[in-house]
Known about the structure:
With 162 residues, this protein is mostly beta strands. It has one domain. The protein is built from 2 helices and 9 strands. It has helices at 3-18, 57-61, and strands at 30-41, 48-49, 67-79, 83-88, 92-102, 109-116, 120-127, 131-139, 142-152. Strand 4 (83-88) and strand 5 (92-102) form a beta hairpin.
Amino acid sequence: xxxxxxWILISMLVAYWSTWPTSAPAKDLEAGITIRVIYAxxxxxxxxxxxxxxxxxxxxxxxxxxxxxLLDKLxxxxxxxxxxxxxxxxxRSISVRFLGLDVSGTREMLSLNLAVKPKLxxxxxxxxxxxxxxxxxxxxxxxxxxxxSAKLKDNAPKEGEK
Length: 162
């Protein structure tokens, strides 16, 4: 291949790649995190489901509990490599660290580190706009479950902004 042909091909590739849409720079990534704290109890006499949990009824009914109540809904925005600490029932707190975006598979996945002090510390991936249900610590006569959802925030400049 001649030197001039090689330079033409390289120039064409550079021009092609420069027209590809790019994602927000890593330093600008921000995630919206929502954690629903669910109280679950085994009760042989009563079955009940908080109406606020209807969207995950099927998942909850697969668990060995009969009563489910939404205790709290924690929401926060966290920048990449940032951490937010949220309080929830039982004098506990949960810290969520947004580690970044994993695009190695077929879906965008948000990488998070969750720590419920003092016992749970885990790294997890949640599909962008997705959610996952985690078994949590004991609480009163039952157990707490954490319904964690995460969505990448759109920080692209609005029309007219720079």
